[in-house]
Design goal:
The protein is built from 7 helices and no strands. The termini are far apart.
């Protein structure tokens, strides 16, 4: 696992140096069964975009979206995919990717609105002593509701 982290670090260093081919090779060394695979796939996608290799970028980002669902990296990949399709002059695929990203964001927005309504409807215990100052977890744990 340490090797996977090292490859990701190397990939981002190469990316910052605009050495995109070396970055892509470093990202490809990361195993897909690790928790860092999503970062490597996202880095691979952006490095491929920056080196005008759009199909490998799309492949990496699509794999990320399909395998990692709601992670931050997968959400970023959802937004990046249409760009790759546009660069490959595939407008129908780009439009479908834009719509997929929009649908995902709309569903997340609905979930957040529901969460906000649930929190607003929740009744919290009133503070019985408004003058009491409570700091730290121990004092909070010892304080009555």
């Amino acid at each position: 696992m340490l090797a996977d982290k090292a490859h990701i670090g190397a990939g981002y260093v190469y990316t910052l140096q605009q050495r995109y081919h070396e970055a892509m090779e470093a990202f490809r060394q990361v195993r897909l069964q690790t928790p860092w695979a999503s970062r490597a796939l996202l880095g691979l996608g952006w490095s491929a975009f920056n080196s005008d290799q759009y199909q490998p970028a799309i492949d990496a980002l699509q794999f990320l979206v399909n395998s990692d669902g709601d992670s931050a990296a997968a959400r970023e990949a959802l937004v990046a995919l249409p760009y790759g399709y546009e660069k490959l002059q595939r407008p129908h695929a780009a439009l479908a990717a834009y719509r997929r990203a929009e649908g995902h964001y709309q569903s997340v927005l609905v979930q957040l609105q529901q969460l906000q309504r649930d929190i607003e409807a929740e009744e919290f215990a009133p503070n019985s002593d408004d003058t009491a100052q409570r700091y730290g977890w121990l004092q909070l744990a010892e304080a009555p509701n």
